[in-house]
Each structure stands twice: as structure tokens, then as C-alpha cells.
């Protein structure tokens, strides 16, 4: 198709992935905020930190096993 299509598809993929991750973290934080009454921004930060640590500590293998179990 060409270089321009390749570059456009890369940008679309990155935008879709960022929006999808944001939606997942936001909906999870809404549920936790409803149960605990904590500040939603605090919960978003905690979920982001835990997810980043879990992924970097266990690597891709831990993510694959978590997805498999779910």
C-alpha cells in the first residue's frame, strides 16, 4: 500500500490503544470509587502504578498468564 498508509495505520493503532487503556482504567476506577468512596484521581494513579509495576516485574509472561486465567 505504501509508506503513508503504514504510518497512518500506526497512528490509528496507537490512538486506539491509548483510548482503550484509558477507558479500562477509568471504568475500573469508577467501580472502586463507588465501593470505597475514594477520590477517582487517586484510584486512577494507584491502578496505573500497580499495573505498571506488575507488568515490568513479571514481564510479558505474567500478562499472558493473567489473560489466560481470566
Task: Give your account of this protein's structure.
This protein is mainly α. Helices cover 91% and strands 0% of the residues. The longest helix has 34 residues. The radius of gyration is 16 Å and the shape is extended. The termini are far apart. 1% of the residues are buried. The model has no long low-confidence stretch (mean pLDDT 89).
Topology overview:
Layout: H1 3-36, H2 40-69
Short summary of the structure?
With 70 residues, this protein is mostly helical. Helix content is 91%, strand content 0%.
Extract low-pLDDT stretches.
none
How many individual β-strands?
0
Describe the biggest sheet?
none
Strand content: under 5%
Shape: extended
Residue share in helix: over 70%
Order of H and E elements: HH
Count of helical regions: 2
Amino acid at each position: 500500500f505504501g509508506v503513508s498508509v503504514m504510518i497512518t495505520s500506526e497512528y490509528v493503532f496507537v490512538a486506539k490503544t491509548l483510548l482503550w487503556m484509558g477507558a479500562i482504567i477509568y471504568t475500573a476506577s469508577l467501580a472502586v470509587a463507588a465501593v470505597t468512596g475514594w477520590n477517582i484521581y487517586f484510584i486512577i494513579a494507584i491502578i496505573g502504578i500497580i499495573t505498571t509495576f506488575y507488568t515490568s516485574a513479571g514481564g510479558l509472561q505474567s500478562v499472558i498468564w493473567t489473560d489466560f486465567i481470566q
